[in-house]
Inverse folding.
């Protein structure tokens, strides 16, 4: 039957996919941390000291 064959993985391709996934996770966590650290400061800076929180 056509289309039921399991493709073989090249080790270089698997390593590349793993590296891309690792980079995506690192960037996601890194930018999330920066947002938590700098977000309130930048919001205050951009809004000129105005805040919705009372």
């Amino acid at each position: 039957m056509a289309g039921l064959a399991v493709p073989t993985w090249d080790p270089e391709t698997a390593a590349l996919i793993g590296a891309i996934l690792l980079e995506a996770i690192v960037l996601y966590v890194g930018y999330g941390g920066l947002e938590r650290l700098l977000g309130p400061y930048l919001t205050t800076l951009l809004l000129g000291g105005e805040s919705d929180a009372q």
About this structure: The radius of gyration is 22 Å. The chain has a mean pLDDT of 85. Residues 11-47 form the longest helix (37 residues). Helices lie at 11-47.
